[in-house]
Amino acid sequence: MQGYILKIQKIKDEDLIVEILTSKKLVKSYRFYGARHSKITLGYKLDFELILSNFIPRLTNTMHLGFKWLFDREKLFLWQQFIRLFHNHLKGLEDVDEIYYRILDDCAKKLDKQSPKRLFIEAYTQILYFEGRLSDRFICFACDEFIEDEEITLIRGFLLAHQSCLKRAKFKKNKIKELLETKQTINLNDDEIDQIYQILLDGF
Predict the structure, then answer these.
(1) What Rg, from alpha-carbon coordinates, does the chain have?
(2) What is the biggest distance separating any 2 CA atoms in the chain, rounded to whole angstroms?
(3) CB atoms within 10 A of CB 112
(4) Which domains does the chain have, with CATH numbers?
(5) This model's pTM is above 0.85
(6) Does residue 185 contact residue 118 with C-beta atoms inside 8 Å?
(7) Residue 13, pLDDT score
(8) Using 50, 70 and 90 to split pLDDT, how confident is the model at 167?
(9) What is residue 172's three-state secondary structure?
């Protein structure tokens, strides 16, 4: 079985509760002396086995499936930020749709050669689209009126609003329209990416 570590919780002594996203489930497992093992790290991809018990499954036979970018401190930091967002979004679930694992796995495979912020923004739009929450009508979240302005703003979940209603960072309407339709960031400049990434950090 393979999956990504979404959360690690230290309990008595050096034992850990480890939550792992697989293609079908968010698995909560117990790892004896897990704090001693560097492979049990937030965001790492593992190959592992579970041994059933009366409490929660015991995590065993773990093997770290590494990526080159893990040696890049900035990319690892941003990856772990995104992983925490994933966990907050999925926490409490057991069975999950495969798309969440596929999106995370796709990001991990591309991260060596692509900008992490751009990659995660694109992944974010894919998840919102899958969940039926990606805005496709330019109606202001705050006043419920159509947005005719050439500049707009975004809030959590990429909800759209008049910049005059929310007084937040403003973006070119046509660029946001392209992002939401294509789920690509190619025509956004680095400053716009930084601003949109800050919105992403508010959560799904």
Answers:
(1) 19
(2) 59
(3) 12
(4) 2-65 (2.40.50.140), 131-202 (no CATH)
(5) yes
(6) yes
(7) 79
(8) confident
(9) strand
Structure tokens at 63: 């093997």
Torsion sign, CA atoms 94, 97, 102, 103: negative
Q: 24 — phi, psi (to 5°)?
A: -130, -20
Q: What is the dihedral of CA 43, 89, 144, 151, to 10 degrees?
A: 0
pLDDT digits (tens, 9 = 90+) for 11-23: 887 889 999 999 9
Among the listed ranges 1-10, 53-62, 100-109, 184-193, which one has the minimum average pLDDT value?
53-62
Query: Minimal CA–CA distance to 46: which of 94, 1, 104?
Result: 1
Nearest-angstrom CA–CA distance, 147 and 82: 30
Rounded Cα distance, 178 and 88, in Å: 28
User: Which DSSP string do the residues of 128-141 spell out, in sequence order?
Assistant: HHHTT-S--S-B-T
